[in-house]
Amino acid sequence: MNTDHEPKNPRRLALALGTLMFTFMSVVSLVIFYTEERRDLADCLLIVGAPFAMAMLAYLVGLYHDPNASD
């Protein structure tokens, strides 16, 4: 079994990670939106912006991360 499997297309991996993170953060934001009673402007901006910010971060990490790079 080959354990040094390197993805053939880092863009595809990055897109998958970004989509996964966006979905997860959207669920978290919906739970917060429906369970929180009092929200101010900062809370609303975080609820709306967090899925996009985390998806972009996961996309960039998936795109540029080199698992073979030395520490």
Give a structural overview.
This protein is an all-alpha fold and 71 residues long. The mean pLDDT is 86. The radius of gyration is 16 Å and the shape is elongated. The longest helix is centred in the N-terminal third of the chain and has 26 residues. The chain is 70% helix and 0% strand. It has 2 helices and no strands.
Give the biggest sheet.
none
Tally the beta strands: 0
H and E order: HH
What structural category do the secondary elements indicate? Answer: mainly alpha
Q: Output the radius of gyration.
A: 16 Å
Percent in strands: under 5%
How far apart lie the N and C ends?
25 Å
Q: State the helicity in percent bands.
A: over 70%
How many helices in DSSP terms?
Answer: 2
* Large-scale geometry: elongated
> What would the average pLDDT be, to the nearest integer?
86
Which spans of ≥5 residues are poorly predicted at pLDDT below 50? none
Indicate the topology.
Layout: H1 10-35, H2 41-64
Helix pairs in contact: 1-2
Describe the structure in brief.
Helix content is 70%, strand content 0%.
What descriptive keywords fit this protein?
71 residues; mainly alpha; 70% helix
